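Example: Hydrogenase expression protein HypE.
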Amino acid sequence: MTTASGTQEVATEPSRAEARNGFDEINILWISEGMSCDGDSVSLTAAGQPAIEDLIQGLVPGLPKVNLHNKVLSPSLGGEDFLAPYRAAIRGELAPFILVIEGSIPNQNIIQGEGYWTSFGNDPGTGQPLTLNWWIDRLAPKAWAVVAAGTCATYGGIHAMAGNPTGCMGLADYLGWDFKSEGALPIVNVPGCPIQPENFMETLIWVLYHAAGAAPAPPLDHMLRPQWLFGKTVHEGCDRAAYYEQADFSKDYNSPKCQVKVGCWGPVVNCNVPKRGWMAGIGGCPNVGGICIGCTMPGFPDAFMPFMDEPAGGSLSSILIKPYGAVIRRLRGITNIAVNREPKWHHNKPVLTSGYDPHWRP
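Written out as structure tokens, the predicted fold is:
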């Protein structure tokens, strides 16, 4: 372009490295004072791809330096020493940070008079407990990203079931499903009761790469779950799925066959645990003889109870699959017998009977 003095300037595009707009250091403020059992924090310690230790020691290439504040994993002495970074974040003195919430969010508004459902530290001035809701109201608007860890935090879980006195809900119900963080991200929901450790770490790593300016925002589905982790059903990754196709169903929990008729909800539940395993690729509910009870789903537990009963649609679907399955099973059995025989020319006789014909020779 031409300047006021008449000289020519050439506009240049910034290089990819120069255009990078990320953070070199970031804090993770993890609050597990929601209504929960702390099982998600405990499960996190089983991650291995990468391990949480690798993350906080800076052993994952390309990530910002991570300062993790979690009561299960913290070397802090506790009390105000542990609360210091949380209070600093509220004052605007600790940024950027990722807020991780573990446990469902109670409804403080239904309490008439004094009392609270769950708290995290005390007010220095009054000495009164500070509720989880108080912290979320002040930290979430300042957070660069907000992550809900586990089904309790994502959709309410056990504490939000019908008849509960707490009015519990998931984080998106509390903050609003259209909530956007300082980093312009929606809430990132990683359900699981508890979280599958690799699922959570993989999601957190993606968010951190995004914070570093090295990756786009993680793709989420309509329930704010990572699409690549929760886009398939349990059934699609289950070792027992072929038995369903053949209408070969378990009558008890000792059988290796499909468990739909003894209470498994796998065909309709979004979860990758049978495919991924639980720890180091091993385990996962149907893989070890358990049924899927839908613990990653928004309707858990109410929509899946009673747990040991056949799912509502299981009876009809198993009836419809029976004629097809019986035919397929029989045909496969016939073919199996045929291919379980050696060819007749495998013998030690003096005559070659393989059909070998050297027709190209004179």
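Residues 220 and 226 are 5 Å apart (CA to CA).
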